[in-house]
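Q: Cell division ATP-binding protein FtsE, please. Structure only.
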Amino acid sequence: MIEMKEVYKTYSNGVLAVNGINISIHPGEFVYVVGPSGAGKSTFIKMMYREEKPTKGSIIINNMNLAEIKERNVPYLRRSIGVVFQDFKLLEKLTVYENIAFALEVIGEQPKNIKKKVLDVLDLVQLKHKARHFPNELSGGEQQRVSIARSIVNNPAVVIADEPTGNLDPDTSWGIMNIFEEINNRGTTLVMATHNKEIVNTMKKRVIAIEEGQIVRDEARGEYGTYD
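A: Structure for Cell division ATP-binding protein FtsE:
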């Protein structure tokens, strides 16, 4: 599903953020990406959905090489990738329903299919009763659940989550993780960067640890480690 071969990323200021990464993530896996601040985790994650391009090497997702894909084809790539951010990135002037529907409208989904798909994912994240609310009427946890619903409404093969519980309290975070586990149980590959030690140590998924731009640990049922 995801394969990186000899991937390097050097920014224009000379910072080497990713230093020769090789990794394979298989369909249906649930993978945590951990490491200290400034280790290269965010760059590693951003390259997976083509927010950043590698300086060298290849990144294959769903049989597409992200290092070579043309800019005009990036939207097509992202149809098969759902992305969940720490800060939700909801459109404040749209309702919950409209935020999720918008993700389908921009890819040309038939109007007759949109309602069913939106209500299905709202049911999954237990927010059907908030469909007509606006983001500022929701709690942080509810906003994150809307963000998750938006990321999966197109049934992507991969969901990439960048610190999705970073702004949430522990109880709310566990609610979010239960949703992610359900999404993964349905067959979606899930890659999540996190600083949440308790979640990683409790759920016992695959753990990839990055330090100074390199993978230093890759464990099938790993733990978080000693990072701050």
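A: Brief note, in case it's useful. The CA atoms of residues 192 and 216 lie 17 Å apart.
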